[in-house]
């Protein structure tokens, strides 16, 4: 499995470079090793767009598929610098876009009620009620 060994070495090199830059990459390492096994089972020694999509599609949620796919995308971008035989998958195949909730702004009346509730926390003869009230002030 010479081709598979090359991919594993490329993954190790990629992870070493990114870790040197300060990234932890626990999930990335797991994903890339999983992808390498998936590709090896298909007798592939290079990153292929169809394989990346098929592998990422095995996840149940759209967010997880996106994370898996983006991990392979970043790795492919790195490895293509050494070997142009690797395909560079399109940037955002799954079309996932993280959305955030609109923040809720408490009114002055609601803040006053929260502070009052904090002052009534138990046990009453400790710093706990005063601490929470001060945090909300």
Please give the structural blueprint.
Layout: H1 2-20, H2 26-41, H3 49-56, H4 62-79, H5 108-119, H6 128-136
Quick recap of the structure?
The protein is an all-alpha fold and 137 residues long. It contains 6 helices and no strands.
Helix content: 55-70%
Total discrete domains: 2
**Would you tell me the structural class of the helices and strands?**
mainly alpha
Q: Which overall shape is indicated by the principal axes computed on the Cα atoms?
A: elongated
Number of helices: 6
Overall mean pLDDT score? Answer: 92
**Cα-atom Rg, whole angstroms?**
24 Å
Distance between the termini: 64 Å
Beta strands, count: 0
Sketch the topology as an H/E string, one letter per element.
HHHHHH
Profile the largest sheet: none
pLDDT < 50 stretches: none
Sheet-strand content, in percent, reads: under 5%
Mind explaining what this structure looks like?
Helices cover 60% and strands 0% of the residues. The chain contains six helices and no strands. The N and C termini lie far apart (64 Å). The protein folds into two domains: 78 residues; 34 residues. Helix 2 packs across helix 4 and helix 5 runs antiparallel to helix 6. The model has no long low-confidence stretch (mean pLDDT 92). The protein is an all-alpha fold and 137 residues long.
For the structure shown, list the relevant keywords.
137 residues; mainly alpha; 2 domains
């Amino acid at each position: 499995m010479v081709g598979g060994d090359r991919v594993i070495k490329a993954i190790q090199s990629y992870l070493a470079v990114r870790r040197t830059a300060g990234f932890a990459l626990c999930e990335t390492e797991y994903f890339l090793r999983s992808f390498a096994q998936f590709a090896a089972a298909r007798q592939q020694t290079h990153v292929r767009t169809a394989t990346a999509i098929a592998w990422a599609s095995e996840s149940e949620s759209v967010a997880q598929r996106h994370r898996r796919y983006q991990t392979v995308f970043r790795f492919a971008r790195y490895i293509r610098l050494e070997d142009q035989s690797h395909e560079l998958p399109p940037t955002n195949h799954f079309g996932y876009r993280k959305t955030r909730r609109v923040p809720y702004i408490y009114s002055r009346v609601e803040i006053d009620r929260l502070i009052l509730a904090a002052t009534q926390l138990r046990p009453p003869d400790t710093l706990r009620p005063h601490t929470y009230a001060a945090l909300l002030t």
